[in-house]
């Protein structure tokens, strides 16, 4: 930098990388998006609790019964 454009930086506290990224791009989401929406989670829970038969189903069967065939079976776990 040239002498007339020098900027003095004073660190008051230590910031995490996440805080720095959030400050650099406010309003931009960080991290991986949720695999299931809140509505899909609620539907899965409601399907599981519906009756005795659904409580005894395997995870893959519950996934199909709840209409969540678009997600990986490990997500249902």
Report what the structure shows.
The protein has 77 residues and is an all-alpha fold. The chain has a domain of 47 residues. The model has no long low-confidence stretch (mean pLDDT 80).
In percent terms, what proportion of residues is strand?
under 5%
Question: Strand-and-helix sequence, N→C?
Answer: HHHHH
Could you estimate the helical fraction of the residues in percent? 40-55%
Rg (CA only) = 23 Å
Structural descriptors:
77 residues; mainly alpha; rod-shaped
SSE layout and pairing:
Elements: H1 17-24, H2 38-49, H3 52-55, H4 59-65, H5 73-76
Task: Briefly summarize what is shown.
Helices cover 45% and strands 0% of the residues. By secondary structure, it is mostly helical.
């Amino acid at each position: 930098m040239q002498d007339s454009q020098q900027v003095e930086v004073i660190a008051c506290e230590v910031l995490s990388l996440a805080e720095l990224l959030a400050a650099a791009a406010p309003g931009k989401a960080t991290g991986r998006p949720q695999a299931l929406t809140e509505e899909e989670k609620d539907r899965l829970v409601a399907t599981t609790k519906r009756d005795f038969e659904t409580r005894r189903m395997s995870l893959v069967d519950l996934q199909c019964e709840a209409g969540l065939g678009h997600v990986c079976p490990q997500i249902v776990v």
